[in-house]
Amino acid sequence: MNKVLSACAVVSAAFAGFASTVFAAQDTLSEGRAVYVRANCVGCHKWHGGGGGGYGGAALSLRKTQLDQDEIIHTVMCGRPGTGMPFFQRDVYADDASAPHPCYDLTRRDLGDGGIAEATIFLRPAEIEAVATYVLTAIKGKGEPNLNDCVAFFGETSRVCDTYKTGAPHPMPQPQTTN
């Protein structure tokens, strides 16, 4: 009897650990999606992450990105100088000589006027990590957007997803390139 109770306790503990990991991952994914919306990533990369024309120009496809977690975090934190990709972490381009310069070892002075786009809101490091996790988990490598992707983003009752209910393919718009 004691062995049975001990085995049940071990199984219960293992399940509780597994369940808390699953719920934590779902919370991170939900937070990442919320940051993706609040930071207006959808403005350029679109809800599906396919990119294309947007407020900042032709955004790259997050579905086709080759970036890993650390590279996505760095890109969100630092932006991409000379492009429409803004930086989302406050003071990463500080002109203070004593401050660290984590983004390409550059300061705002080095970049000059218009050398880097500044986000309309700043994100905390945990929010940047959450949005990177969301991109890696829900967007990267997913192929063409479909009804399941749309419902996962907008919810069951959104009429936005009605166009996906016909079963017809809906190719993502291709980003325009400039020479």
- Sheet having the most strands: 2 strands, antiparallel
Distance between the termini: 76 Å
- Mean pLDDT equals 83
Strand content: under 5%
Structural class: mainly alpha
H and E string: HHEEHHHH
Low confidence ranges: 7-24
Cα-atom radius of gyration: 21 Å
Characterization of this structure:
With 179 residues, the protein is mostly helical. It has one domain (2-164). It is 44% helix and 3% strand. It has six helices and two strands; from the N terminus they run H-H-E-E-H-H-H-H. It has a two-stranded antiparallel ribbon. The longest helix has 37 residues, at 2-38. The radius of gyration is 21 Å and the shape is elongated.
Short description:
The protein is mostly helical and 179 residues long. The protein has helices at residues 2-38, 41-45, 69-78, 108-111, 125-139, 147-154, and strands at residues 52-54, 57-59.
Task: Based on the model shown, name its key terms.
mainly alpha, 6 helices, 44% helix, 179 residues, two-stranded antiparallel ribbon
Strands, helices and their partners?
Blueprint: H1 2-38, H2 41-45, E1 52-54, E2 57-59, H3 69-78, H4 108-111, H5 125-139, H6 147-154
Antiparallel strand pairs: 1-2
Helix pairs in contact: 1-5, 3-5
